[in-house]
Predict the 3D structure of the following.
Amino acid sequence: MSIIKKEGFMATKKQGSNKKTVKNIPPASIKAPDEKKQTQSSTTSDQPLSADSEKILSALAYPICIIVALILLILSKPQNKIGKFNGYQGLFFGLSWLVIYGVISAFSAIPIIGFIFILIASLVTLAFLVIGILLAVQVYQGKIIKIPVLYDLIPASNRL
């Protein structure tokens, strides 16, 4: 059997018989498996974040605070109020930690009692980390947590 290949055309000829099989396959209809995946992903790239990604980022906005919260605010869809809400609240949670830690650390420069403020600053950091992890678990489970003072700072259009 001899096979003759041309672009967009394949013909086979069996030796010893007069039968010819001709298949006309246009080259445009032949796609590699990767091309199909790319066309499918290009249609879903209109959505900045999937629901799972947004849920994970919403949870991580509390223990990792400022960086993840900003990423969530930038990439979250405008109609997704939960993602925006957790982004703002996580951002304000991280900023409040920075302010409290900065004030306590400033007092650590006092010569005689400075070591006490260093200890307090370490305990405050540990407390914020534990609270952030607890908030992350609650948010990942789908609960809406409203931190009293920080909730008032969120813009009215993004409040729940």
Observations:
- Residues 38-45 have pLDDT under 50 and may be disordered.
